[in-house]
Amino acid sequence: MTSHHLLLLPGDGIGPEVAGEVEKLVQWFSNRGLARFEIEKDLVGGAAYDEHGVALADDALNRALAADAVLFGAVGGPKWNDVPYNQRPEAGLLRLRKDLGLFANLRPAICYPALAEASALKREYVDGLNLVIVRELTGGVYFGEPKEIVTLENGEKRAVDTQIYTTHEIERIARVAFELARQRRGKVASSEKRNVMKTGVLWHQVVNEVHKDYQDVALEHILADNCGMQLVRNPKQFDVIVTDNLFGDLLSDVAAMLTGSLGMLPSASLGAEDPATGKRRALYEPVHGSAPDIAGQGLANPLAMIGSFAMALRYSFDLGQEADLVEKAVANVLAAGIRTKDIAAPGANTVSTSDMGDAVIREL
Amino acid sequence: MTSHHLLLLPGDGIGPEVAGEVEKLVQWFSNRGLARFEIEKDLVGGAAYDEHGVALADDALNRALAADAVLFGAVGGPKWNDVPYNQRPEAGLLRLRKDLGLFANLRPAICYPALAEASALKREYVDGLNLVIVRELTGGVYFGEPKEIVTLENGEKRAVDTQIYTTHEIERIARVAFELARQRRGKVASSEKRNVMKTGVLWHQVVNEVHKDYQDVALEHILADNCGMQLVRNPKQFDVIVTDNLFGDLLSDVAAMLTGSLGMLPSASLGAEDPATGKRRALYEPVHGSAPDIAGQGLANPLAMIGSFAMALRYSFDLGQEADLVEKAVANVLAAGIRTKDIAAPGANTVSTSDMGDAVIREL
Ligand SMILES: CC(C)[C@H](C(=O)O)[C@@H](O)C(=O)O
Ligand SMILES: CC(C)[C@H](C(=O)O)[C@@H](O)C(=O)O
């Protein structure tokens, strides 16, 4: 049996707690002889800064480069508000994305019928919602240079960020979106601000060009501000939304919040396929943050992290059946009325992080 | 009686229709001798392009510079999808903003109890919602240079946009937000992405600095992605949100959509106060766009445009009582169940653009 090499980077806040529940799951799979994992663990974010003075040590990066997949918890917290910019917790995540070449970030926003009540939106707007935001993750304003603050002669400061996109960066993310739409409902909405941004103009052109190879997929273009609106007005109109790094950051958070259960949402960040092995680098992480306010209290919902592990099973380890198994177990646990506090409901049974993990394993 | 000098720029799509209803209102005020207006009209957007080959002719700009206030309809439509970038309809609006120095864009998101049902959000989340987004309007990625598309040696293209902010640009918009909060519920949320953008780092610093002069106002900092989330999760937590040009574009559209009645929302774009006269340049415009799909059919809701005129009465013409009168009339018309199609409700009376304008005048 091949052994799957997984790097666990729990990070800060509730990261370690929710990662702990995945470790139980891995143990369960190993005990049953259903799959073999080789697990390594390392530090990222504030935890890495405290230990090494950087948000991701070279050692951890090298481990990530060598792993079949990285499972990432969350980073950040008030404790590190004043660390220097280049060492801030987020820098660890950004370095991973960049150095692993994880250009395609897939963020599903799925509303579980059992949880639709938790949404601020009326049930009919979100029940059955199932869209994916495909966010470009290694370009745009996150990484473009110049990115600096300079002091002017008059003593004022001047800050600059630069958004850059080249043809091939847009092309490859567009392909990911079209391929994904083919396996889904066959619809892509491409979002930019071509009415004010040149990167939006190029984005729009290149997506149209790539679309010629995917005539079976319906393509619409939607300005990013309108996309934010439409997500609130009628989210079920969308299947796949493809957009740049910064718009993807905002729009995926809005989309996630529509479901009413942030604690449920996994995500995958994928690199290019290696033509020799057919493999791609990958990092999986929950959409939620490090939630420092509830860290260490057993209140966190581990299901987004468990869902991220299921995505790793499916996309990185070719264990689709095992992924189905995990996702089915999660659905059953929810249907049985077992809830962490964030998704608590009248009549349901509110449990701790660890009880939730155990409940999923019982269901398996 | 002083005569107020108003430039009307109806623009494209439904712009001329909704502007027409404001003309009726102006007529009404003049007939009663309640106020004197000198109205000029000019072209902007696609309409200006068709006539002059540019989205705003110098002549129109000069009129705008000379006016006490500009009332702007909407621009754009599929007809002008293929005009050159610098002549696209939006360029007219951007030129007005820049050349009039309208750095402060105030976008209220108010949910009228009578219309709360129209929101995708549950009533309790939006009923009584009343927040203002203060968006920086003449800086950031909208205007920064370089802004270009170049062809590389390998034939690929490379597009660049540049986000720039200087201390004083942030300072003056922060002051607008704090002053406004003082007249409201005393709370400002400042939104940026300082975890990935240097402009966000500077924004955060400068807002903190300005806050020292407004210790009676509560300040919180919220990352822009989280702000998008919180707008969906619990919009009533906000009073004033201050943010940059691009984030303001997205967040204000999300906020507007929460109210369920885009056709109701006015906005004001203000310049700096002239120290000599105490006056500021100003442009008022509805938040909705040109809606080419319903243009010319008498379906458009003129209330956002009428509300924008009311804002002009209050902020540019010092006619606060008259503004109150108009706003009261609008509220009464709604309460009486008179609705355009976009805000139609069971049992209400659905009327045309022009009937709605007449209904407001009857109420006056
Ligand atoms: C932590 C932060 C750098 C990150 C981002 O902005 O990409 C986060 O918001 C996300 O969406 O993954
Ligand atoms: C028309 C367009 C240029 C404009 C903008 O992006 O600012 C619009 O979306 C707005 O919000 O006023």
Care to describe what's here?
Two copies of one chain form a homodimer. In chain A, the strands form three sheets. A ten-stranded mixed beta sheet of chain A has the order 2-1-3-12-11-4-5-10-8-9, with helices on both faces. With 364 residues, the first copy, chain A, is an alpha/beta fold. In chain A, strand 11 and strand 12 form a beta hairpin. The model of chain A has no long low-confidence stretch (mean pLDDT 96). The two termini of chain A are 21 Å apart. The first copy, chain A, is globular and about 60 Å long. The first copy, chain A, contains twelve helices and 14 strands. Chain A folds into two domains: 206 residues, Isopropylmalate Dehydrogenase, CATH 3.40.718; 129 residues, Isopropylmalate Dehydrogenase, CATH 3.40.718.10. The interface between A and B is large, with 60 and 61 residues. One 3-isopropylmalic acid (IPM) sits at the interface of chains A and B.
In the residues of chain A, how many domains can be counted?
2
Order of helical and strand elements of chain A: EHEHHEHEHEEEHEHEHEHEEHHEEH
CATH topology of the largest domain in chain A: Isopropylmalate Dehydrogenase
CATH architectural arrangement of the largest domain in chain A: 3-Layer(aba) Sandwich
Task: Please identify the top-level CATH class of the largest domain in chain A.
Answer: Alpha Beta
Q: Major β-sheet of chain A, in short? A: 10 strands, mixed
From the N-terminal CA to the C-terminal CA of chain A, the straight-line distance is 21 Å
Assess the beta-strand content of chain A as a share of residues. 15-25%
Find the CATH superfamily of the largest domain in chain A. Answer: Isopropylmalate Dehydrogenase
Oligomer: homodimer
Bound small molecules, by name, code or SMILES, are: 3-isopropylmalic acid
Number of strands of chain A: 14
Low-pLDDT sequence parts of chain A: none
Q: State the shape of chain A.
A: globular
- Average per-residue pLDDT of chain A, rounded, comes to 96
Return the structural class of chain A. Answer: alpha/beta
- Most extensive interface, chain pair and sizes: A-B, 60 and 61 residues
Q: What's the tally of helices of chain A?
A: 12
Q: What is the C-alpha radius of gyration of chain A, as a whole number of Å?
A: 20 Å
Pathway (chains A, B): Amino-acid biosynthesis; L-leucine biosynthesis; L-leucine from 3-methyl-2-oxobutanoate: step 3/4
Catalytic activity (chains A, B): (2R,3S)-3-isopropylmalate + NAD(+) = 4-methyl-2-oxopentanoate + CO2 + NADH
Main location (chains A, B): cytoplasm
Subcellular location (chains A, B): Cytoplasm
